[in-house]
Amino acid sequence: MQKITFHNDINDLEVSFATDTPRTFLSAFDGNSLGAEFVQFKPLSRDGSRTLSHTLSARTITFTAVWYGVENGRRSRSKALDLWQTLQYAFAVGDVGTLTWTNGSDVRTIECYAVETPELRESLGGLFSAEFTLMADYPLWKGSEEHLRTFSGTFTSDGLTLVNPCPIAVPFTVVLDGNIVSVYCPAQEKRLDIDVSRHGGYDYPVYIDTARQRVYGFSPNGSGELTEDDLTSCLSPRSAFFDLMPGSNLIILTMNASSAETDATVKFEWYDYYMGVSK
């Protein structure tokens, strides 16, 4: 069994097709097309340091959907065309959405968008079909299992270790309180430096999302509801987004020297990513 569900993030429409639903049948699906090329990690020295050469190019996802409409217990051409109209809105060209794939046990998602309006085909028996082509600029499929690590206390130059069990590098989100001003990965010589004074100060947790390369937070508005704040301007010019490499990753956190607080809390969140999907 295979099932795909596409949720359009622009107009909030959602449609599904599966291999075990005759009225909305998934006739063919290809989520494994070439789009990401990786060179495996290879040891470079005795201390175990490793490197990775990789390129990421957009992935093309195609599927063929077959459906028919029903009204008063009989097949209806007008109902089938109503679904076709919904599909055109759901897969509006350029509208970014989330495609979820499952085979009944594994669940994977990918952000993508339609690149063209497919041709509608009609056959005998009131069956309609169309072949859809989607484009994913970030070509890796995101797994459903979340890895969460929370650390609290006084952080030193000894750093902390995050273990990525995935065989490829994966993006992550780090949530910082006000006492952490830098996240540094010595193996990659990349750092994320935060200066909330660029935002006029900020008394709430700061989120750094390396997948979408953005920095944000949530603060209450006048009605007490949480609203998202764009904090990307708080990154220093020398900052560079990085991923967690396969295996152990040493991360060094720098605390705010001007703060009277001696403890801090930091949370790392990430998912496994995959080159494709199984059947």
Describe this structure in words.
- This protein is mainly beta and 279 residues long.
- The chain folds into two domains: 3-139, Beta Barrel (Elongation Factor Tu (Ef-tu), domain 3); 145-274, Jelly Rolls (Sandwich), CATH 2.60.120.
- The chain has one helix at 77-90; strands spanning 3-8, 14-18, 24-30, 36-38, 42-43, 50-51, 54-56, 59-67, 69-71, 74-76, 96-102, 107-114, 121-123, 127-136, 141-153, 160-164, 172-176, 180-185, 190-193, 206-209, 214-220, 226-230, 247-255, 264-274.
- Strands 1, 2, 3, 8, 11, 12, 13 and 14 form an eight-stranded antiparallel beta sheet that branches.
- The protein starts with a strand and ends in a 5-residue tail after the last strand.
- Mean pLDDT is 88; it is low at 38-53.
Characteristics:
single chain, 279 residues, mainly beta, Elongation Factor Tu (Ef-tu), domain 3, Jelly Rolls, 2 domains, six-stranded antiparallel beta sheet, elongated
